[in-house]
Amino acid sequence: MNAFTSLDISVLLVYLVGITAWGAWLGRGQASGRDYFLGNRELPWVAVMLSVVATETSTLTFLSIPGVSYLGTLGFLQLTFGYLAGRVVVSVFLLPSYYRGELSTAYALLENRFGRETRRFASAVFMITRLLADSVRLFATAIPLALITGWDYSVSIVVIGVMTLVYTYFGGIRAVIWVDAVQMGLYLLGALVAIVALQGLVSGGWGSILASASESGKMAVFDLSFDLAVPYTLWAGILGGGFLTMASHGTDQLIVQRLLACRNLHSSQKALVGSGIVVVIQFAVFLLIGLGLWAYYGGQNFSRGDDIFASFVVNVLPSGITGLLIAGVFAAAMSSLSSSINSLASATAYDFWAPLAGAEDDEARILRAGKLFTLVWAIMLVGGAVLFIPLSEGTTAIEMALAVASMVYGGLLGAFILAVRSSRADQLSVILGMISGVAVVISIWIFAREAVAWPWFVPIGSVVTMAVGWVLGGWNSNGQDFLDSSRNSVG
């Protein structure tokens, strides 16, 4: 077992200092909230595409996905087929609606259709979801740092949070997107290095790894069963993964903010669909790493699935290479955390603060307020990650994060579908629909999680939200017509 050497520390420090300084430098000359949160809508689609991938996968892919295949099979890959299909649907049906007006956040679309309270309610749901899910992401990143330094997880979390905050605060979305693009390249390079290393560390190389994995049934990709309790089936992947992506990439400010930073609708569509293709390839790479680790360790038990790849990187790989891969872990973490901080600050500034402060047309004030909210949300995310530490036993962080997000995504997606496709729904019916959709899914999580796996949460929540919104919308409309006619006849 190798120690984390001075060479590794040097590689890591050069990366952290360099990327932080470059990100802060990218934010020079900002004068408005539009520039700070939307990059003045002039960022190239390739950079946005890479930023989308880095944001949604980040540390959870780097650390947790190898653990998923180590402990199971390649079945997780079925979700990525739904991820790609969901992006196509969003690019065709939702993105054109965003580009019809100068929308500052995803939830401005709901205000245009239903009213300001719907926008605020949806934005608040987004904030709670991001705070919970991304606190889990940040915790996952602290694992390798804790292994290297011997620090407590809480100390590791604070260090990562502070480093990320510096360039996010000064650089805004322009820094977030460009740094994401570079960081994604770094952690994919780290994955390829691990694949090459496993070729030499396992007797017989990848030929032997794949042969033994196949004999043990770990190469299975497709599960055609209709069991709702099984999280990774083809139907859960296509429907559950598709609905999850329609929600995360069509209604979540974390991703929509990046798509709105593109130069036009066509560029935004290319960035979104292209990211789906990259995600399929990326997940396949990290799942294969999990199989290689399984062969290397001989199926050894680990207390936490997220520890497996981190332990391999720190304890097995040669000096210098370890530093490179740990830098890749930090790259993945910082891209996700910076995206969360910036999107949460954006939603707070545009959806809540600006209307209440009478500053909707004052971009300079929005910029100042946005930087303050950046600090506040960074502190809250760090605090949430620390609180997750005692809850982390017995699961992988990616499954926990996806389950948390899926509890509320159905309500958000259902509201957006009603906004775009229904003429019956109104503000009250949509809010009640979202509440109903989220409540039903949370109830399933509490009382029936063994019977219904998390990939089904978003389809269920979406259907409930749309049904309640459609029924109550028609009822409210008919009731209002009756009241109006009654008043006219009395008059």
List the helices and strands and how they pair.
Elements lengths: L5 H21 L6 H6 L6 H27 L5 H17 L1 H4 L9 H6 L2 H34 L3 H49 L3 H11 L18 H17 L2 H8 L4 H33 L9 H9 L5 H37 L5 H26 L8 H25 L5 H21 L9 H34 L1
Helix pairs in contact: 1-8, 1-14, 3-7, 3-8, 3-11, 3-12, 3-13, 3-14, 4-10, 4-12, 7-8, 7-13, 7-14, 7-15, 7-16, 7-17, 8-12, 8-14, 8-15, 9-12, 10-16, 10-18, 11-14, 13-14, 14-15, 16-17, 16-18, 17-18
Characterize the structure shown.
Helix 11 crosses helix 14. The longest helix is centred in the middle third of the chain and has 49 residues. This protein is mostly helical and 491 residues long. 78% of the residues lie in helices and 0% in strands. The relative contact order is 0.18. It is built from 18 helices and no strands. The C terminus is likely disordered. It has one domain: Sodium/glucose cotransporter, CATH 1.20.1730.10. The radius of gyration is 23 Å and the shape is globular.
CATH class: Mainly Alpha
Mean pLDDT: 84
Catalogue the unreliable spans.
478-491
Q: Could you give me the name of the CATH homologous superfamily?
A: Sodium/glucose cotransporter
Subunit arrangement of the protein: single chain
Give me the secondary-structure category: mainly alpha
Please tell me how large the radius of gyration is: 23 Å
Order of helices and strands: HHHHHHHHHHHHHHHHHH
The dominant shape is globular
How many beta-strand runs? 0
- Please state the second-level CATH architecture: Up-down Bundle
Q: Main β-sheet: number of strands, strand sense, barrel status?
A: none
Domain count: the total is 1
Helix content: over 70%
Question: What portion of residues belong to β-strands?
Answer: under 5%
Number of helices: 18
* CATH topology name: Sodium/glucose cotransporter
The termini sit apart by: 88 Å
